[in-house]
Amino acid sequence: MVSTVEQTGSRPAAWGAVLSMALCVAMLIASEFMPVSLLTPMAAGLGATEGQTGQAISVSGLFAVLASLLITTAAGMLNRKGVLVAMTAFMLLSLVLVAAAPSFTVLMIGRAVLGICIGGFWALATAVIMRLVPAEDVPKALALMYGGQAIAAAFAAPIGSYLGGIFGWRAVFWALTPIVAVNLVWHLIALPSLPAQQRQDVRALFGLLKRPYFRRGLIACMLSWGSAFSMFTYLRPFLEQVTGVDVATLSALLLLLGCAGFIGTWAAGRFIKGNAAPFLKLPALVMGGATVGLLLLGHSVIATGLFMAIWGAMNTMFSVIWMTWMSQNADDAPEAAGSLMVAAIQASILLGAVLGGLLLDGISIRATFVGSVVLAIAALALIRDGRQMLKGS
């Protein structure tokens, strides 16, 4: 068992705090994406269409973009421990609002509150990890924190769908509230005091954007994420229309994709060390390649499962690779860099989903996957060997 604090050099490594943040990540991912598996009963329960309910669910992404850009400035000189605790409290409030929502409007308010939590937490997360462990342990700590993403990705949707069918969709959200409450208390106990190191303002954001290497990296990151989510958002219609799976096979394939994330989490902690440049092209290369494989062999369930497992493993490495790059190349302004990275990722997820939807409605599901591949190729063309994304280039 890892002790909460172990001395490494002159800086204590607060692994208990890292684990607390990993649980928070798992709850964030579950809270954000659980409604996808409960869309139909939620719409029926609130007297809304599935399209309206889907829009209410996605409103969290819009507020996450805004919060990620504003939170480090709005927090001023507040202790970052208190800010993280407040973000977790927002998640708890969001779950209560959604679970008890008497109307469509209250559902949207609950999702907006969750968006604030998502944007605020992720904007600060990497900067906080950099203060919890020694520099050489940052990739390992990031992999551990993103292990919560793998757990949620693997189990949130199937468990939510199963429990929702038995107890109703509201019970699923109520079931998450005690876990988040425990996580909030764990934050209070495990997180050390994290005084603000300097006052953040919009000048820090613009200062980073003036750096050519960081600007190139940010664009490459957006292209990579846009590629991934223009495909992932519309994976179900592809599996239904091209692979021809039934509901049971669909659930099994999605579970396989999620469980493969554990391999990616292990690999990230094991292999991502030192200079991050050689790893930057891997997400676009591997996930784009898996998408090509689905386009060519998607009619085969076995081949589809293989490519989905490859995609799922790289999905959990994705965040670790790019946040490691950020921690190494914007270490003088980690909170401002975190704000920009989270805003870029959330915006690219939203735009990728819009692009994929336009291609799906206008042409076909295969066109959506081709669009994903095109974005991946653009990312690879910009990244090349990654050296132009490094500080000092």
UniProtKB/TrEMBL annotation:
InterPro entries: MFS, MFS_dom, MFS_Efflux_Transporters, MFS_trans_sf. Pfam families: MFS_1. One of its GO terms (molecular function) is transmembrane transporter activity. The chain crosses the membrane at residues 12-34, 54-75, 82-102, 108-129, 141-159, 171-192, 213-235, 247-267, 279-297, 303-325, 337-359, 365-383. Gene3D superfamilies: MFS general substrate transporter like domains (1.20.1250.20). GO terms for cellular component: plasma membrane. It comes from the Bacteria. CDD domains: MFS_NepI_like (cd17324). It is found in: Cell membrane. It is a multi-pass membrane protein. Residues 1-390 form the Major facilitator superfamily (MFS) profile domain. Keywords: Cell membrane, Membrane, Transmembrane, Transmembrane helix. PANTHER family: PURINE EFFLUX PUMP PBUE, PURINE RIBONUCLEOSIDE EFFLUX PUMP NEPI. This is MFS family arabinose efflux permease. It comes from Paracoccus versutus. The lineage of its organism: Bacteria, Pseudomonadati, Pseudomonadota, Alphaproteobacteria, Rhodobacterales.
